[in-house]
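Quick one, T. Sequence first:
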Amino acid sequence: QVQLVESGGGSVQAGGSLRLSCAASGSTYSIYFTGMGWFRQAPGKEREGVAAIGTDGSTTYADSVKGRFAISRDDAKNTLYLQMNSLKPEDTAMYYCARGRLGKPPMTPADCNYWGQGTQVTVSS
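Structure tokens:
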């Protein structure tokens, strides 16, 4: 069983920054083994991929966050990160960490098989 626990969400003003963390645990699980991704879901909207990283370190970003967000991982700490800069009100959503089924960066919910409980990000104008 894999557990993913997000943290770091909060309320910020537009232009501010937040850093999300996702700690992974499980009997033999390491985030090194699969791709990992960050997703978000705003009220009334579908869950969407924000950023993802593959086992080879390759990264993929949604067009709406390119140049503002950065995904990274610390394999030794089994932790995934999302640095979010220049935040906008439209970034307001619940943010989820997810494990991909394969080694490539997972950018759709169907690409993932384990999810965290989410952390709320609220950006005010």
